[in-house]
Automatic annotation (TrEMBL):
Domain of life (superkingdom): Bacteria
UniProt protein name: DUF58 domain-containing protein
Annotated InterPro entries: DUF58 (IPR002881)
Domain (DUF58) ranges: 193-363
PANTHER family (UniProt xref): BLL2464 PROTEIN, SLR2013 PROTEIN
Amino acid sequence: MALTGRTALLAAIGSLPVGILAPSWAGMLAVNAPLTLAILCDYAMAAPVRTLQFTRTGDTSVRLGDAAEVQLTVANPSRRRLRAQLRDAWPPSGAQAPARQKLTVPAGERRRVTTALRPTRRGDRRAERVTVRSYGPLGLAARQGNHEVPWTVRVLPPFTSRKHLPSRLARLRELDGRTSVLTRGEGTEFDSLREYVPGDDTRSIDWRATARQTEVAVRTWRPERDRHILIVLDTGRTSAGRVGDVPRLDASIDAALLLTALASRAGDLVDLLAYDRRLRAHVQGRSAGDVLPAVVDALAPLEPELVETDARGLAATALARAPRRSLIVLLTGLDAAPVEEGLLPVLPQLTRRHTLLVASPSDPHVDRMATARGTIDGVYEAAAATQSQSQRLRTAEQLQRHGVTVVDATPDDLAPALADAYLALKAAGRL
């Protein structure tokens, strides 16, 4: 049956797409035919959404804590003027601003809008979809549609420990003999002769040179270069725990970045791998100038896996990537059970040919608990914290008895402490 008059009008209204009508007009349509006709005309004059064309430009990477900008260009190929509200959707951790933007694009032209992102987490942040609501000239009705416009911004680690790099490079220059302070090391590269001063190792005296002059001469040594450093990150379940305000893995990543920057400046070759039950990330064979950017890019999307780390698989992977004598730096936890059941059985494989250094971020909250006094709760907290600290100390001593160098420090101190341990090994000629 054909519909006529008011019945036909109501049927036409009912067939309108969802979102065409402003909510405040819904109750008036059945009694106000002229207004309804105006709404229908307004809807008909709204620019179509499906034919819009989108392109993106802008930043593809940003350090955590910094801001990135992504531009979205909207082209309107239709004959109608586009009056729209646009939402460029990103994940909540992208912290975009503004959330919605008004946009006007004349027929056959294009306009650009900018979305600012200040991500709150590491990793890849992908644009989800672009939603456009196109209004008619009167603003009474609108067309709405979604478009997929892919774009990815990689959020890199913040590398907060880079502030410690200048002081460690100065120490490195002292070891290399490039300043007036010459440090006696056990390296194999002869550097120069200087006058003996009280406190020098008598084994460094050069008797032939002393016989040729009136003063006692000692040899100085330059630490070896081109040593191989393999940084291994444990990404198993223990890396997901929070220490202070950051996950344990993030503290380990920051320490790995400082060590990479320092060792590459020292002329050593740096490789990296991340492992739990399988290889999660790796960097190998990069030059000194390329290794730090490569490590930053590889570690940016890395997340902890809630599985127990396969220590035998980790050791086998590390040995396969360290065919010659190397310094293996393992960033993991010092929890008693994982170390005793996982790491200790495979230590002989690692220490037979290589120097092993284990670094672990400790929880500063435990240190604060250990000083609590004055209340019953405070005494119990102090007892629990002291027990935890004693357990970590016993675990570290177990590793040290196997010839392992152990660095146990809070997240803020882990990176510089690891850098100092590396310099001490280099000065002692143990690399």
